[in-house]
Amino acid sequence: MRGGAIARLRPAAAVLATIAATLAVPPASANGEALSERLGETIPARLAADGVAGVVVVLIEGGTPVWTAAFGTADPAAGRPLTADALFRVESLSKPVTAWGAVRLAETGRLDLDAPVANCLHRWRPPPEAGAVTPRALLTHTAGIGLGDVSQRFAPGAAMPDLPAHLAQDFRVMPGAGGGFSYSDTGYNLLELVVEDCGGERFAGFMMREVLAPLGMTRAGFVPTGAEMPVGHDLRGRPVAPYVYLAHASGGLLATATDMARFAAAGMAGARQDVLTAGGVAALHHPAVPVGGLFGLVAEGYGLGHFTETLSDGRRAVWHGGQGYGWMSQLHLVPETGAGIVLLSNSQRAWPLFAAILRDWSDSLGVEPVGMARILRAEQAARIAIALAFGTAGLALWRAFRGRRPAIALRLVVGGVAAALILWPAWAASRDYLFLFSILPGLWPWLAAGSVVAGAGLLALALAPGRGR
Question: Is-above-0.70 flag for pTM?
Answer without folding.
Answer: yes
